TrEMBL record:
Family under the similarity heading: Belongs to the binding-protein-dependent transport system permease family. LivHM subfamily.
UniProt organism field: Undibacter mobilis
GO molecular function: transmembrane transporter activity
Biological processes annotated in GO: amino acid transport
Keyword ATP-binding: no
Protein name: Branched-chain amino acid ABC transporter permease
Lineage: Bacteria, Pseudomonadati, Pseudomonadota, Alphaproteobacteria, Hyphomicrobiales
Subcellular location: Cell membrane
Transmembrane segments: 20-43, 50-70, 76-97, 109-129, 162-181, 210-231, 237-270, 282-302
GO CC aspect terms: plasma membrane
UniProt KW keywords: Amino-acid transport, Cell membrane, Membrane, Transmembrane, Transmembrane helix, Transport
Cleaved signal peptide residues: none
InterPro entries, sorted: ABC_transp_permease (IPR001851), BCAA_transport_permease (IPR052157)
Amino acid sequence: MLYKIFIDPFVQMGMAPDLLVQTLWDGLVAGVLYALIALGFVLIFKASGVFNFAQGIMVVFAALTLVGLHEKGVPAYVALAMTVAVMFALAVGVERLMLRPLVNQPDIILFMATFGLTYFLIGLGELVFGGNPKVMIASELGLPKGTIDINMLGGFVSLQKIDIAATVIASAMVASLAVFFQKTRVGRALRAVADSHKAALSVGISLEQIWVIVWFAAGVVALATGIMWGARSEVSFALQIIALKALPVLILGGFTSIPGAIVGGLIIGIGEKLGEFYWGPLLGSGIESWLAYFIALLFLLYRPQGLFGEKIIERI
C-alpha cells in the first residue's frame, strides 16, 4: 500500500514522461485561470478588507451578458465593449448603493452585503438572459479552435489552441494588473487605502474613486475569466462553483498578494491534475474536487497567512 502511494506514481511519471508533460500542461492552464479568478478577490480585498463572495457570480453575469447581447443581434466585439460598460456600471452601482452607505461598518456586514449582491445578480441574470446554459462566442471573438500535437519524449502532447490562448491572455492580464497596481499612481493609492482608510483620506485619496476602480477591474477580470472558462465548457450558473476554487488559492498565496494569487493558482492547478491522474485510481475518482481544499487546510494549520501574506501581530 505504501509503495502504491509513495513510489508507484513517480515510477509511472518516469516510464511515461509524455503523459507527465500533458498532465503538467493541463494543470498549468487550470492554474493560470484559477489565478485569474483569485486576482478579482485580491483586488477588492486589498481596497476594502472585505472578501467579495459575489466574485463567482460576477464571472457568470459577465459571460451571460456577453453571450446574451450577441444572441440579440449585437456584433461580438460591440457586445464585448457593451459588457465592459455594464461591468463599469455595476462597479459604480456597488459603490453608490452598497459600499458608501456601509462605510466604517464592521467587515462582517460588508461581507454579508456581498451575499446579497450575489443573489441579486443571480436573479437579474435569470430574468434578463434565462437560466439555460449558453455557448460562448469564442470563434466570433477570434479565439482559436483545434489542437496542436507535439511529438516529444517518445510520445506526443496534445495542446488545445483555446488553452494556449487562455494561458497567454490570462498571463498578460495578471502581469498587466500587477504592474498597474505596483507602479502607477492609482496603484499606490490602492495600497494606501489597503493600509488605512483614514490615513488615505487624510492625504486626499478618494475612497469612492478607488472602490469604483477596483470593482471595475475585478469586473473586467470576471469577464475575461467567464470567456475563457465558458469557451472550455459552457456558460451557465454552474461556473460560479469553479470560482470557489479561488478560496484555496487565496489561502495558499495570501489574501492581499497578487504574486501569491499567481503562485497559489499554479500550485492548486498542477496539484489537482497530478493528484487526479496519478493518485486518483488509488484514492478514488473525484480527487480533483477536494484536493485543493485539503492543501488549503494544511496551510491553515501551519501557515495561515499564506506564502506571501503578512503576519498579523496583535498586542494582548
